[in-house]
Amino acid sequence: MVKVAQSAGFCFGVRRAVDMLSRALEEGKEVSTLGPLIHNPQVITDFERRGVTILENAGDAVPGRTVMLRAHGVERGVYEALNRKGIPYLDATCPFVAKIHKLVGDATRQGRSVLIAGDKNHPEVVGIMGHCAPGSEIITFGNSSELAEVIRHDGISVKKVYILVAQTTFNMLEWQKCVEITKNVYTNIFIFDTICNATILRQKKAEELARECDVMLVIGGRGSSNTAKLAQICRPYCRTLLIERPEELTQYDFKGDVVIGVTAGASTPAFIIKEVQKIMSEITNTQDELSFAELLEASFKTINSREKVNAIVTSVSPTEIAVDIGTKHAGYVAFDEYTDDPGAKLEELVKVGDELELMVLRVSDVDGTAALSKKRLDAIAGFEKIVEAEESGAILEGVVVDVVKGGVIALTNGVRVFIPASQATMSKNQDLQTLLKQTVNFKVLETNKQRRRAVASIRAVLKDQRKVLEDQFWESVEVGKTYKGTVKSLTSYGAFVDLGGVDGMVHISELSWSRIKHPSEVVNVDDVVEVYVRDIDAENRKISLGYKKTEDNPWEVLHREHNAGDVVTVKVVSMTPFGAFAQVIPGVDGLIHISQISDERINKPTDVLSVGQEVQVKITEIDFDKKRVSLSIRALLEKDEEPQAEEAVSAVVYEAAPPEIQPEAEPVAGEEA
Ligand code: F3S
What is the model's pTM? Predict the structure, then answer.
């Protein structure tokens, strides 16, 4: 039985570098790699056949040829040298390695010392050291014993601050020991676990498989440190053979080996793993694996770009999904070809054994891989749905993912749909940024099938929704009915209120019982207000609304709270030759006629009273019909005789209106002034 470890072969960074170089060659670029791109002779030979040359160092670069920097990364000086010579370069430094460059660069610029767990001669470690600030202290060690030795030898400086990082392929167990040691010794240390997850996973799966095998085949370059580490991990559990090429298998005897495990270093292309698997299956003659005939047929099966394939998930990592597509190629779906959600976790979306329908993006016979995409296939199916929606007028749902010049982009069924600014909102003033990340409904206005482009309108849906609400409103509206609405706009003569599909207007005189100069004294735009229908003009579809409430009418309040004969304190608000007006309650002023100001004869009211003065008065009369309140100070002054009835002169009162414009404000004829 032949078993292949779940995580074996090209890691994300190596595959990225190989893809980058393949693409550059397809684009017609002449490329030289700075050192061999990966530790695999077959792949390197194939690239050389395609014109790729290998440089020993950056100084050998020649104008006209692009220099490719490999996944291990390089020192900062290399970039500077290439820039000085004006030589273009392609940077395939693995993002995980680039992160270490940044960590050590930032730390050493702040004067910190660097501890690096790794092989000081390995290009990756050389590159990391080359990103430290000039003159900074750098200490490298290959394992925990070396670290202990360095500490014993060099002593500890409590004044220094250290940063500890690891080569991405450093052994995890050794790393844990190093962390323990440094934590015990250094108090001022920042520890960053920079070991690559791909390496950890590969090592873990190799160990798990080695435990159940009679023999482990570790495939990879003899100069590859991660391959050597895999072999080192497997060795304690079973016989472990490190091979570089499938042909080497003939040197070994597998008699008596029932379970054979296969794993591979990060530079081993998938086709070599398949080849080894095939040879071992033939040797062990087991039926657990594909039959020879099936393998042969599969190896002849070809696939082309844009083809749709069915695939079975064979492993899932945070960055990609490995799949079997039934050919000699190892298929993989990169994270961003599976989902648009950067927060998604592939391990939660798919599991080993799941069947997927995918589209072929690229086929590389050099490394035996096929880059696949679920998103592209979804987008094709999604576009068909958009075309159908255009024909049927159906409403689609999507999420606004981008605000661009002239509109927004909504994502629906995996397709980016353009919505022009004029079609994105109901109001011209709405900021398009407010739509970002919102779920919106829209109608498709037009599509271009060749270019797979679609233009849509949110506004069309909003207009339809408004029409439905409008119709419902007109069916049920009646005078006196109350509504909750939102103030949409204000003018000098009133406020427009959105009642949910229909706008009505509250005239300024209907906003308040008091006299106001502008509606903004009572309501503001976006206020939610309760209004009632005063009048309906169904023909012109106009609604007149009321806002002020009957119970707030000052005359109603006066009626509830006061009677003639009450003694109240009032405030003088204005003066006339025939008397003084005083506020009884907000909105109701009463008149203290000149004859009722004093029990002595006075020439004018201002002889005794002034505006703003508070005085105690008796309410001598309230005429609700004529809206008049008569007040008297004199009635409260102690006298032997009650004032003559005719002396209690009526006052005229308005709803806070200036007396001089009110005809009723004239004194009673024949009255003594
Ligand atoms: Fe990068 Fe990890 Fe590979 S660091 S190059 S993905 S082993």
Answer: 0.46
